[in-house]
Write a structure and sequence with these properties.
Elements (H helix, E strand, L loop, with lengths): L3 H13 L7 E6 L5 E8 L8 E5 L4 E9 L2 H14 L5 H16 L2 H11 L7 E9 L10 E8 L2 H12 L1 H5 L45 E6 L15
Parallel strand pairs: 2-4
Antiparallel strand pairs: 1-2, 3-4, 5-6, 6-7
Amino acid sequence: MITQHEIAAISRLLEEHSIFPENTRIQKVFSSEANTFQVLQASIEQDIEPVVLELPALSATVKIKRGDHSEEPAKICASLCEAKQHAANEKQELFLSQYIESFRTGDLEVYRNSQRTWITDRSPRVENIFGFVEPYRDPYGIRAEFEGLVAIMDLEETRMLMKLVENSSTFIKRLPWTGGDENDGKGPFEKALFEPPDFTSIHCKPERPKSDFTDECAALAYCSSIIFPGINLPNVCA
């Protein structure tokens, strides 16, 4: 049985070699000769020989190999290539290309770049997120499950949220720790320039007529182990 101590030691080793853990899983190989751990990384590309690292803290060897779940990301990327042909702008084309590159190679730095691109695509009519995002069931709280979401924006509720953003400076000045003349009435703890987020409401509202998609939100595709009531993305900032 693998322990929390072993998982922590392997995670530190991966971090030292700039290997992000979100799309990996660890297997402990039981042997009478030596302790061996396999780190399997999700990607289309498959390594013939693993990368071998020594872990003195556990007197163990760690073997890192790409190609875990290779069939699934291959199907995902085939669909993403089709989606690129219908992208609304160059930013969407770029982050879809970065999704594909990340899922093909397993490189999560490319995935982080896709998220940096994704947040610059302001108020898209069709919203999406794909990738190893949330560690819902990982005991160590790092390794993530793959999730995917494609949905149509709810125009009415999004307009309401944007109205909230437009009046954010007024609401900030009403917080208990603000007041006075300092920082334009925002007090010492708030930023001088508030950077408003981009809100999108995409939850379904069944009372609306399903035939009218001009002002309708809908989850077109949803893949996750839970139904989350809200989502704040990206998890990785520039």
